[in-house]
Write a structure and sequence with these properties.
Elements lengths: L5 E5 L11 H6 L1 H14 L3 H7 L2 H4 L2 H23 L5 E4 L3 H8 L5 H17 L6 E7 L3 H23 L8 E8 L2 E7 H14 L5 E4 L12 H14 L24 H7 L7 H10 L4 E5 L4 H13 L4 E5 L2 H12 L8
Length: 343
């Protein structure tokens, strides 16, 4: 285990916003270089997309994923190369795992940019538009959500059998993201998610509710198997053997690893399996990590870490890095670390 107790957090899809990274582009040549690398790799003006939008284009899965990866990598490179901020472990939420692996030295940046573009296209194509959806279940524990998903899946399948004589494999609702205590996102076919939301309403448990999300596909569930197969093929064809210069914490296992042979299998597997974010942050607690830096747009992961920490009675300070002021605060915090923990 690394003696360096700095953590790198990298956000996933949904954190994108028009204008992200613009101030860094204007101030730092390393950020400009990063955006140019990404644009060249995709043959797409990613800078214009990130800075000017339109939002409808930026939020498309195949655009949002490389855009967030590019901005997150640019933010990390500024902190690392301009301010000598080094990390002891990296982890990213869903798409953010690619950013984390670029920071860990496991993936070439230009390849990762191309792969997440293909990943986004494959995830969008895996399920017909309107056939799948996601919902955030609030106020329930993990075991409750898992149990209700099974119950709702059976109920939706029964309705399909009654109406059509079959239910097909595609009728399912499953936990997709274990984000924080009392915040689990579920994913699946529209009828099964409907059944889950109806089930939760009927149970009338105080403080428990489901909120439908505005997403374009049912991510991180078994309906994404076709996208997983696409990524398995892309990664296999690359012929690469990843090497880790910094340990990372995979979404699928929630265990810190320095084993490079697991990287590609886990990247493919996370597409149609749950993101164990809450469990991953709890792993950081167990290893006594105290400070994290969130590289990229927004403060989503900072907020989740606070919720997870409250439940576990543990404080992990998270410093977002997305503009000049947040960069200043973060680097000052890093410089105040006790001797022996400084990067």
């Amino acid at each position: 285990m690394s003696k360096n107790k700095n953590v790198g957090f990298f956000p996933g899809q949904g954190s994108q916003q028009v204008g992200m990274g613009k101030v860094f582009y204007e101030e730092f040549s390393i950020f400009r270089q990063t955006m140019e690398e990404a644009s060249d790799a995709l043959k797409l003006d990613l800078k214009k997309l990130c800075f000017d939008g339109p939002e409808s284009d930026l939020t498309l899965t195949q655009n949002a994923q490389p855009a967030i990866l590019a901005v997150s990598t640019g933010c990390y490179r500024i902190a690392n190369r301009e301010f000598e901020l080094n990390l002891g472990v990296n982890l990213g939420h869903s798409l953010g795992e690619y950013s984390a692996l670029v920071a860990s030295g496991a993936l070439p940046f230009q390849s990762a940019i191309q792969w997440v573009r293909e990943r986004g296209l494959a995830m969008q194509k895996a399920v017909p538009v309107g056939a799948g959806t996601m919902s955030a279940v609030l106020g329930a524990d993990d075991a409750q959500v898992e149990s209700w998903c099974k119950e709702a899946t059976l109920a939706a399948q029964a309705i399909r059998v009654a109406e059509n004589g079959t239910y097909e494999v595609a009728c399912t609702v499953e936990p997709a993201n274990f984000n924080a205590p009392g915040q689990t996102v579920v994913s699946g076919s529209v009828d099964a998610v409907d059944a889950l939301e109806k089930l939760i309403t009927e149970k009338k448990i105080r403080g428990v509710m489901a909120k439908r999300l505005n997403v374009s596909a049912p991510f991180h569930c078994s309906l994404m198997k076709p996208a997983r197969e696409v990524m398995e093929n892309i990664l296999k064809k690359s012929g690469m053997t990843p090497e880790l210069s910094t340990p990372y914490l995979p979404n699928r296992t929630a265990r810190i690893t320095q084993e490079p042979t697991v990287i590609f299998p886990l990247l493919a597997e996370q597409i149609d399996h749950s993101v164990l974010w809450k469990q991953s942050v709890e792993t950081l607690f167990k290893h006594n990590y105290k400070i994290a830096f969130e590289f990229g747009p927004g403060k989503v992961l900072q907020g989740l870490a606070k919720r997870i920490g409250r439940e576990a009675n543990y404080e992990l300070q998270v410093f977002p890095i997305f503009d000049l002021e947040s960069l200043k605060v973060a680097t000052q915090a890093a410089n105040k670390l006790p001797q022996g923990e400084h990067p």
